[in-house]
Amino acid sequence: xxxxxxxxxxxxxxxxxxxxxxxxxxxxxxxxxxxxxxxxxxxxxxxxxxxxxxxxxxxxxxxxxxxxxxxxxxxxxxxxxxxxxxxxxxxxxxxxxxxxxxxxxxxxxxxxxxxxxxxxxxxxxxxxxxxxxxxxxxxxxxxxxxxxxxxxxxxxxxxxxxxxxxxxxxxxxxxxxxxxxxxxxxxxxxxxxxxxxxxxxxxxxxxxxxxxxxxxxxxxxxxxxxxxxxxxxxxxxxxxxxxxxxxxxxxxxxxxxxxxxxxx
Length: 264
Ligand code: C5P
Description:
264 residues, TIM Barrel, 8-stranded parallel β-barrel, globular, binds cytidine-5'-monophosphate
């Protein structure tokens, strides 16, 4: 059965191997996945994946948010699919073709790699036939974007006034391209699940437990862990609320507990 901790993806937003290993050791068994983002990947290179995997059985989410011409993204995906990660991100704000080519590249190499075991827990919304494959997630709209950012980027009024319609448009592109799911704020999870179904993953960043809310936060479209999971999120991405806590292990436990309570 999926437990509260299995929903948590800890964002390893650090710039050294020492710090990464410190958090992985500290949070091993307390979270379901570790997310390696641009900062750590650029600093350490792909070897960091092997190092993290040596320390934990948790899943690995490589958050590179690719966005380039379709052929380049496909070729990058062919390489990523050989790294043994479970999830990877591309921007849905590009073209439908780019998303399709991302999936094609990931599937091609995953098929060749065809490892028998995967870190993915199968009752977490991932199907068994995904074992050994890297799931491509389309990033719909960054959670630090609000209407003013959309407006300043020159989007049509309809999207400025209704951000959700932009998120849904991008989710539709990701779904049609064969992505495993999307990254979206907790505010859109319910709509996405209702439209694209249970198997289409909703991964939600911008998570702020009530005890961590800070007025100067850069994240705009935030939700609490329980709000996101209640809305249907399969995974919640949590960085600073755990990282900046006095006791990160306790913070992760509190989040897991908050989710567990939804079952009562
Ligand atoms: O520290 P915090 O909990 O805000 O961390 C959020 C993490 O989620 C960061 O690693 C960030 O890159 C990632 N993310 C996000 N918004 C998205 C996609 C990913 O904040 N739409």
